[in-house]
Specification:
Strands 1-2-3-4-5 form a five-stranded antiparallel β-sheet, with helices on both faces. Strands 9-10-11-15-14 form a five-stranded antiparallel β-sheet. A four-stranded antiparallel β-sheet has the order 13-12-16-17. It starts with a helix and ends in an 8-residue tail after the last helix. The chain is of the alpha+beta class. Its main location: membrane. Pfam families: Fer4_5, FMN_bind.
């Protein structure tokens, strides 16, 4: 018998060796880590007509691409501007090209270290993702997948690498925005634009000049000769038309200005008849600015020659509004009591296309020119502010633009349904553990409940959500802990983060058994396969305990080997971590090269004949989790003195052989299925309970009935 067992073991070892040989001697594309690419050939590919590619330079490093002497675009690497760690803890470096108008011309992956992509998703799919950017604009708000929202352009994600492409999208858009701002393609202003205000039509009270100037309804821009001279210091015309010492305080320009289509301003300033005429001539969303001045002419002579008023303009929200002769009307008279006399008085119409907001601050800019020779001249400008009084306009409440969510917030918002369902599942599991002594007294219910929970673990946590923990996660955490640690890296996948939190808590309270027995999708899949096979009476094969106990060491040796590799190269450790079939089974759903599929199917099919073979002997993640078993606070699996000597019922029934012949439970190997506890409380199955029951029955039979004598 022992010789047959050894023969089977050797046969299995040969089979495993063959699989590993195939798995780790695949062509390069099967276990691919993208090497750094030279960006210059890719730039030439994006700009086939380029005649010159400049050196990468600047505070925001970019290449300037020229055709002859004309700049036709810019290129940059995302790692030079925004190094955002992806799932592996390393950024995905990309080459991005834009034209001078801010349009994306191309995006190419230069280097990546993503574990999800390493062997499972070909680079062609990654290229297809970045190929969506040409034709979009830097100012566009781009979002990967998800529900459609306003003001968003949606681009397709990459199945199996959602976190990766979301990080890539943020790296591309943020880097492109910085480049575009540094080049002046888009404005760097973050000023909030006020919603369009409405002029209140019935606000009017008879007033005089002093009242309207005093409350700010009419504003004044006053310049003396000294102020103008000071403004030209350092210019070529510094010494032209300079005022003498006696003239320094003389008035150079006195300009009053107001928003004339405000009823309380226009009716008092122009009179009722002129105001009504003005309002009747204004088209919807047009406005009138009254300007009155002495001294330096705000009209100038340009409007006579070309119909352009080149000395004044109105500024609002960084928009400059200039006027032509068709926008101009003379003011013939001012009806306001106490008004001074003016050399020039005009109305200027702000046309609808300027989208002038009567409730937002605006400025009148007066341009002063000094002539230098017959043709050349130099300008400087002076500004005066205007704010419509609160009583004149209705300003809607400011609607602040929705702040852009961080990448982590976006991911959690997208996964809120999964997070809620997973939280409910964990609460159910927690309740099961707390009330286990009650539930084990109802074996049929507990078995059905456990099998249903395992189905949910496989279908939802595993296949739907990709929530399979891996030894790669452990190595990534250790690498991050030893370098620049950031929680953002681990928060990028909510399901994985929550499962790791649950694993940490349950390890502290009950050991690794809870995660491996209830929450691990591949462990659950193995157990369900074995349950079905037992239902159909398939013969089961279990190794003798002495052999079984020694095979436990394999997974710890694998863990140590992978850990050693990770210290030298995380990418290399990720490749050899393919001993875990998790990626093939759940993340990629068997859509990859045949040796990986063969290995995963082999580990699943072997469970037809024995339960959880991979978990017991090969799983490096289980080995890593069991190292924290010494921290376990509770020991709720009950044992009796008779367990092991002489009773061995539980040890024989433990389907993963986690109970030693002496009756002790090895919590490093236990998966908390609670089968031993069902036996422990079953007085028809547990020998010590059956023996106790027989003693009680004999005692009752031996009792002498008391005879009552009357």
């Amino acid at each position: 018998m022992f010789i047959k067992i050894l023969t089977k073991i050797k046969l299995f070892q040969s089979l495993v060796g063959l699989v590993f040989l195939l798995a780790f001697t695949l062509p390069a594309q099967a276990l691919f880590v993208s090497p750094p690419k030279d960006p210059i050939p890719l730039i030439k590919q994006i700009f086939p007509s380029a005649t010159q590619i400049g050196e990468k330079s600047g505070d925001v490093p970019i290449w300037s691409i020229k055709k002859n002497d004309e700049i036709i675009g810019y290129a940059f690497e995302t790692n030079d501007i925004n190094k955002i760690p992806a799932y592996s803890g390393e950024p995905v470096n990309m080459l991005v090209a834009i034209n001078p108008e801010g349009m994306y011309l191309g995006a190419k992956v230069l280097e990546h270290h993503e574990p999800i992509i390493l062997a499972g998703i070909p680079e062609s799919k990654l290229y297809k993702f970045v190929d969506q950017y040409p034709g979009l604009n830097v100012s566009d708000r781009l979002k990967v997948g998800g529900n459609k929202t306003d003001n968003m352009i949606h681009i397709d994600g990459l199945s199996g690498a959602t976190v990766t492409v979301m990080v890539m999208n943020v790296a591309i858009t943020k880097s492109a925005t910085k480049v575009a701002r540094s080049l002046g393609i888009i404005s760097a202003s973050d000023e909030v634009t006020l919603p369009m205000a409405t002029i209140l039509p019935d606000v009017y009270q008879k007033s005089d000049w002093q009242t309207l100037v005093g409350d700010g309804s009419i504003r004044k821009l006053y310049l003396n000769r000294d102020t103008v001279d000071q403004a030209f210091i350092g210019t070529p015309v510094e010494h032209i038309d300079v005022a003498s010492a006696a003239q320094k305080q003389d008035m150079f320009a006195e300009v009053y200005f107001a928003q004339a289509n405000l009823p309380n301003v226009g009716r008092n300033l122009l009179g009722d008849a002129e105001y009504q005429w003005l309002i009747s001539t204004l088209q919807p969303n047009e406005h009138a600015i009254a300007i009155m001045g002495n001294g330096y002419s705000f009209k100038g002579s340009g409007y006579v020659r070309g119909g352009i008023f080149d000395r004044i303009q109105v500024l609002q929200n960084e928009d400059a509004i200039a006027f032509r002769d068709l926008d101009h009307n003379r003011i013939t008279d001012i009806y306001l009591d106490g008004a001074p006399s003016f050399k020039e008085m005009s109305l200027f119409i702000v046309r609808q296309h300027h989208e002038f907001n009567p409730g937002t601050n605006w400025q009148l800019e007066l341009l002063v020119r000094r002539q230098m020779g017959a043709i050349e001249s130099t300008f400087t400008s002076f500004k005066g502010d205007y704010d419509a009084l609160d009583s004149y306009v209705y300003r809607p409440p400011i609607v602040l633009p929705e702040s852009e969510l961080t990448l982590t917030q976006q991911v959690w918002q997208e996964k809120n349904v999964e997070v809620i369902i997973l939280a409910i599942l964990l609460l159910i599991l927690l309740a099961t553990l707390f009330f286990q002594d009650i539930l084990v007294r109802h074996p049929t219910f507990l078995h059905n409940f456990r099998h249903s929970f395992l189905v949910v673990t496989v279908v939802f946590i595993g296949w739907s959500w990709g929530g399979q923990l891996s030894i790669v996660n452990v190595f990534t955490f250790l690498q991050a802990f030893m370098s620049d640690f950031s929680w953002d890296l681990f928060l990028l996948d909510p399901v994985i983060f929550i499962l790791w939190g649950a694993a940490a808590v349950t390890i502290l309270l009950w050991g690794r058994a809870v995660y491996c027995g209830w929450l691990c999708p591949f462990g659950a899949l193995q157990e369900l396969v074995n349950v079905v096979s037992r239902h159909f009476k398939v013969p089961q094969f279990d190794l003798p305990f002495a052999v079984h106990e020694r095979l436990w060491a394999i997974k710890y040796l694998i863990l140590l080997a992978l850990f050693g590799l990770s210290l030298d190269s995380l990418a290399l450790a990720e490749q050899f971590a393919e001993i875990e079939p998790f990626k093939t089974t759940f993340l990629l759903k068997f859509d990859r090269e045949w040796p990986f599929i063969f290995w995963a199917l082999f580990l699943i099919i072997i469970n037809i004949f024995t339960r959880k073979f991979f978990c017991r002997y090969l799983c490096p993640l289980g080995a890593a989790l069991s190292t924290g078993n010494s921290l376990r606070l509770f020991d709720w699996l009950k044992r009796r003195p008779e367990c092991g000597q002489p009773c061995k019922t539980c040890a024989k029934e433990c389907e993963i052989q986690a109970i030693h012949p002496d009756g002790t439970i090895n919590m490093r190997e236990c998966h908390y299925c609670l089968d031993c506890q069902i036996t422990y409380f079953n007085d028809e199955k547990c020998p010590p309970l059956k023996k106790l029951a027989r003693k009680k029955q004999k005692y009752k039979e031996a009792q002498i009935q008391t005879v009552e004598v009357t």
